[in-house]
Design a protein that fits this description.
This protein is an alpha+beta fold. The chain folds into 2 domains: about 220 residues, Enolpyruvate transferase domain (UDP-n-acetylglucosamine1-carboxyvinyl-transferase, Chain); about 210 residues, Alpha-beta prism (UDP-n-acetylglucosamine1-carboxyvinyl-transferase, Chain), CATH 3.65.10.10. About 30% of the residues lie in helices and about 25% in strands. The protein has 13 helices and 23 strands. The strands form 6 sheets. Strands 21-22-1-23 form a 4-stranded mixed beta sheet, with helices on one face. Helix 8 packs parallel to helix 10. The protein is globular. The chain binds uridine-diphosphate-N-acetylglucosamine and phosphoenolpyruvate. The site of phosphoenolpyruvate has 8 residues, from helix 12.
Amino acid sequence: MTSDEIIINGGRPLRGRIEVRGAKNLATKAMVAALLGKTPSVLRNVPNISDVRVVAGLLALHGVLITRGEQAGEWRLDPSNVEVAHQADIDAHAGSSRIPILFCGPLLHRLGEAFIPDLGGCRIGDRPIDFHLDALRNFGAIIEKLPSGISLTAPNGLRGANIELPYPSVGATEQVLLTAVLAEGQTELRNAAIEPEIVDLICILQKMGAIISMEPNRVIFIEGVPELRGYDHRAIFDRNEAASWAAAALATKGDVFVGGVEQEEMMTFLNVFRKVGGDFDVHDDGIRFWHPGGALKPVTIETDVHPGFMTDWQQPLVVALTQAEGQSTIHETVYENRFGFTDALVKMGADIVVYKDGLHDETRRVKRREFEQAAVITGPTPLHGADIEVPDLRGGFSHLIAALTAEGQSKVTNLGIISRGYENFIEKLRLLGADFVYES
Ligand SMILES: CC(=O)N[C@H]1[C@@H](OP(=O)(O)OP(=O)(O)OC[C@H]2O[C@@H](n3ccc(=O)[nH]c3=O)[C@H](O)[C@@H]2O)O[C@H](CO)[C@@H](O)[C@@H]1O
Ligand SMILES: C=C(OP(=O)(O)O)C(=O)O
């Protein structure tokens, strides 16, 4: 056995308590924001995941001194000596994560130049960066495409801009925020993403001295300031990790208290969880999710930008839907190719049909996006163990859930991808009473 695989004996409910950590989709960006400060920043509740380590490596290459605090998950980031990194060293980070694109604005402000390696992240669609590059050009950046990344300069500095995003992209909104805060003059961003992690990033930037106001209808105003200081901040909890463990509790007919989760950011997920037939109790220190017995019910879900049902939640939930009585439909409107993970579930006995051009009937005639896909899940179908390979982060977690739900033994390989976004998931499985063999 290698440390990249796990053998799971399924069919046992998950029961117990685990804690979620800070969000991958905030902590990594907060680390980049530290580059903008004149003084060191302290970030708490940082998850021990590989995406965080990738960003730490890139920051270190640019001269940021990173030290760990006494408490688990506390990081101090000192940007006093930011410097240009060697392109060859940066190249080593190519394909590792999506976060490097957010270094553009901060490095242009600090150094007047930036080299960004080719991006990684989950392969769930084309994931272009045109909105990022258009916004940066609006601020005054000059961008050159190189064989292994992009190089940027700003010979005349960066100036506030009027930007309207064609779609409320999370990354492009963060790009604009991280660039506008130190740009000269005002920036108006329209059609911005307003995910809770973006609001948390805005809180961090405000602590640093930025002036940012969130207006109705996805408009954000930023008044550039000449300098920013460091921040002290506790990262918002990871909504995706929380929803994943909740889905695991439901699919395995279990009962899991997920500590550190707050209701407000989970509202849309909680509604769906209840409609499917799961139950939950909100406490001050977390949310308990359980399967109350009886049949699960089918649902129709459309993934969307916040406050809609997040695309990252659909993959874990699909496993629970294989156990619902009747036909569920998921319309995926955020990414054009996010159902690849269902092949493994079908191999395990699920009845799932993917419609690559979307599904259009009397209830849904109009496509919201050109590339929509849909999956129809008909249940309940018993799942049986199989050898399966993790395709991407959330798909990988859904494979773990499927193996935990299935009767018999499954071997899940390529586990490393799951460490990109789930801290200590093996230990958490142990805490919840899962039956498995894993050798680190
Ligand atoms: C590290 C991180 O925070 N990842 C999250 C972030 O990804 P990420 O920030 O990459 O996702 P975006 O919100 O930018 O992407 C949404 C849509 O916009 C399109 N698009 C985006 C940028 C661009 O320049 N051009 C373009 O066409 C994408 O192809 C996609 O169809 O938000 C997604 C949507 O909530 C989540 O699934 C990811 O977990
Ligand atoms: C798609 C995801 O992440 P990334 O943008 O880092 O690939 C995710 O977290 O599910």
